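During the first year of the project, the team set up a workflow for recording each protein of interest as an amino acid sequence followed immediately by a discrete structure-token representation. This format lets reviewers and collaborators read both layers of information side by side without switching files. As required by the reporting guidelines, we include two representative entries from the current panel. The first entry is reproduced here exactly as it appears in our internal archive.
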Amino acid sequence: MEDDGAKKEVMVTSMKAEYIEHSIEVTHFATSDMEAQGLGMPGLDDAADVPTEMTVSVEEQNPNDGRLEVMELKHSIDKKKKRIRAYSQKFRKEWIQMGEFQGWLSEGSAPDRAYCTVCSKELLAGKSELLKHANGKKHKKRLEEGHINMTVPTDLSSVLDGTAIPHVLQIVDLRSDTVTQPSREMKEAMFDAPVGDDVFSEDPTVKALEEKVARMLEKEAALFVPSGTMANLICVLTHCWGRGSEVIVGDQSHLHLWAQGGIAQVGSVHHRSIRNLPDGTFSLQDLRSLVRGDDPHWPVTTLLGTLCNELNLPLHMDGARLINASVALGTSPARLVQWCDSVSLCLNKGLGAPMGSLVVGTKEFITRALRVRKVLGGGLHQAGMFAAAGIYALDHIAPRLSLDHTNARAIAQSVSEVHSSAITVDLKGVQTNVVLLHCDNIRVNAKKLCQRLASVTDAESEEMGEQIVVMMLPITETTVRLMMHCDVKKDDIKAVIKKLKYIIQEYDNMMYLEYK
């Protein structure tokens, strides 16, 4: 380099860096054409990536005689902060076949994570850490207990990455039609929605939704509430305004089984149940026998869970999936509720909205329901975002519900064609997006079937050539429910059918005596 300290342009043809204990400052590098020559050099200004001291050997052509000369450039950065070295080991797939890890090791949720399917635990991907885990007492005990059969954990959070996308498996969630994710278009509608304070009745998007639903059901007014459970409770409390009231509900109805007894717990309303027939209806004669007369020893029957104008009593419909019923029957939802004094309509069951339901009835009924909503804590302020999701769902998701019904029928048909004695389905009962699978309770019950569908064995993975996890819901000891929804795609249906046929064949091959 020149003695006067001027900066000199050099063409780098080869470069080698070494860490050294001493340091000499480098004044300048000319890196022109380095990328074209396939060379790379760390940025000297990036204090996080450049070592404290380094030396670089550079070949330079002498302009006088054309000979190549080697010169060394040395670089030092005065770092006041303490440098921290971080060790990171990436998971290697070949480890899965190693004797110490075979049968229980799989990839984790990130490149530097591994997963133990025996302990249902995520681990650092370092080989020493994995060996330490393999030699642990708890791990060995679980291996001895036979947990090694399953290569996929039931807790699916560990097999999902940060974006909730499976990195190894195909996961199909059919537990409910409430597990859907808002689409990009629905989110855009929510983002763009004008809002106001709905407690002051000043939210324009909420008003638009309420008016839209009231027109659709041909009722006078509607009220937006957070959930279906609250909607039904509001309707009961609005009808049963005085103390000592009673309602009659089906013994298999949601209001009777799945609402925590809220009408009694919160509203002090007595209720009597009537036996539902297999198709959900019940005997009108049984209904007449349950209606109370005018006796001071009895509560006053105020509300019925079914149509009975003859008894001159108000009628409420739990319309959680009213739109599905309308599509399946090929009639308008207004016709289905024309004799009802009140209706609840869910936006997040089958319609794909993140939340919200509506109470529908006369203006007088809604005025009273508004007071009940307030005391239950259902008044929302800037609720327009959620109302916008409901409007989008009614305009864009409702017209495609018939596809959900077709998919449900396809799965039920595939189960029926297997002619299994362990797992059966009633095709006549599959009319909308709901399918019920019935277990023989000898070889398998509902809970075990759901656990098996949510797991993958080594033999299954090898035979099927893929890993499929299907999530369903046990609703009784012998009944499993699966529900179609707008997030289920064509490939998901094929995967579910493939998985179900494999599992059903597995149970059909079992001997009865082994599972008594």
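The second entry, processed by the same pipeline in the following quarter, appears below.
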Amino acid sequence: MEFGTPRKRSGGGGGVAAFIFPKGAAADPALQKPRAAPRASVAASTEKRKLLVAGALGTVALVALVVGLAAGLALKSRRASLLAGAGPSALDADYCGRLPDAAQAYCTAYITSAGSERFPAASQWHKMSSITYECSGVKTTCLDRDLKGKGAGSSCRPLAEGAACSGGGDRKCRSGVCGGLAAWEAEQQAAAKARAAQEAEARAAAAASGRASNPAPAPGPSPAPLPPSAPAPARGAGWQTFAAEVHAGSPVMRVPETFLATSHEWDRITDYADNLEAFAPIFREFGPSPILRMGGASQDFLTEPPRREIWEAMAKMHAAFSARFLIGLPLWRPDSAAIASRMMKMADEYLPKKAIVGFELGNEPEFWPTSVGGYAPQANTTFVPGFDAYASYFGRTATKLNPCGPNTSPKLSGPGWGNVNTIDAAWLATQAKAPGARCYMRELSVHYYPYVNNDTIDARGLLDQGLQDFGLSKFQWLLGVAKAVRLPMRISETNSLYGGGRAGLSDTMAGTVWCADALFAFAQAGASGFHFHWGFGGRPLLGGQPNTGVQTNFWEAGPDKGKPYPSVHAPWYGYLLFRHATAGAAGGYSDATLVSTTTRPGGCRANIKVWGLRPEGGGLRVAVLNKDMDTPCNVELTLDGDYCASEAAVSRLLPGAQGMASKDGITWRGRSYDGSPNGLLKGAPSEERVAPVPLAGADGRCTVTVPMPAASGAVVEAAWGR
């Protein structure tokens, strides 16, 4: 069989993803149309030339003069009509080309997208440049028409020059900007200040925690790191020591049975069912009954329930590997309740009850193209902006879908609020405590993406402990609301970077380490689940997005041409380390409790994390991550005497030849998916054995020393017994 491209890479997927830029990112000049020539200067020059010709050519000149005057009058008439409110005729490339630089890209993304891809494009435009979006004329009615359309272009009509902005108030549209170009400059400056304030808050959180990471290396040359593929010595020669004591008798938080999970858009879930032989082994790595969240951005722009083939694919996945589903329902459209009701009935029709975890109503409402809001109860087609209108609308819709009754139970969660770092806990509390919420609300959910500039962040910044601590502090604030109403809190969508990630960072060893670290951190913080967003998985000839753990590729030739197959990428290896550290016997459900650890960095200047776990089946596991780019250290673990009777087993996660920048060559327990198109690891598993060293006069305690190269991870397993 002739393989296609087992390791196809992509810079961020296809469709609208290719046009949407992250917060703070500069627009791609290739997508920006040049500004139109100033009509006034062109017209004036033409007029002068025509007058000169008239004076020289007599009768012909008189005709030319008349024509020129007519053209000038027509031009003045068009300008007058614009000022009078006639406005541009269409939202098109000409209109987009006149907007300020970055806004051109958001506008172009919208008009060049087709059908359902308009919704995320509109959301991104509104989020990134609301003052140009407000003058674009994109409103609920025309956006709904555009969502149903097949091709590019738009039925929306921009507001006229001088017209009141759609957001209300006294502001006027000037040159396509609400408030004019001065307002545009102010918006850009405010965004920069907001990012700077967030970064300062993150640094302050790191300083307060006393765990600021990636400190400057000690003066003098650093010892050479261990080659990634070489077996580790008993102790790294010349490496500094990082000490950690694991307190097995001090439990902190039990890891939920199905904590590690995934999130998927609706449109390509059928690809998994089209090659279950290859994809089933992938999903079985999550445990006996993995949870897949269905929805994301695609749920809110649904104009009708997902097609029958999608439900059939979900049923096949449940039959093949006991998949269970958290099903995303629409909320943005005025007819969402009717569509959602039909979806809930279809779920009951195609799936057994045990395959349905619940239903998530709405996705990231604070990032809707209309901003947060809801439809008026008296006129369900009138969208009213503001959180109060949203809360009322959510409550009415939820009650219709899941009313109180003697034979009913709460089935809903949601919405999937956009980001732990930005959502107001007061909003969450208002919604969770709303009248009737106890009848329909089964859990609360929020998304988590690091609050960074996708374009400028590097591996060192992405793995900085202060950045994670900032997100965890925000999550704890929200978790307090959940505890007050006795509901769990799920991270229903996450990844190392938003917008599909960034090639060369999300799909490298940095992404691997970020995923593993975030799993342990949010499990210990108390989240009920952690869903890595795989988006659409992949598309023919385009591959998937950089932060997708397992992309969907397609055979390009041979008898299986066009058939999907799994292409494992760097983030996936972080999942494997976490599962090994938390899983029960024979790869069962997560069956471990995180325990207390204390650390003493000593002379080690590396960014190291240590997590102690006590599995229910006995023994002790310790997960160690060296998040540093280039500094290795010896990690000396102090264990209770109950775990010192025999050698400890060490399973390693190692980068490829490029260290933290490695996309390929990454191994877990000596094995790799490189070149594997069937969802199976290649090679035989390997582990090291490390003898414990008794501590004199320490009640039987011992130390186990594990050399940790830069950009690596390990799971140490110590058996119980004296």
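For the second entry, the following points were noted during internal review. The domain at 255-587 is CATH 3.20.20.80 (TIM Barrel). The chain is about 35% helix and 20% strand. Both points are flagged for discussion at the upcoming steering committee meeting.
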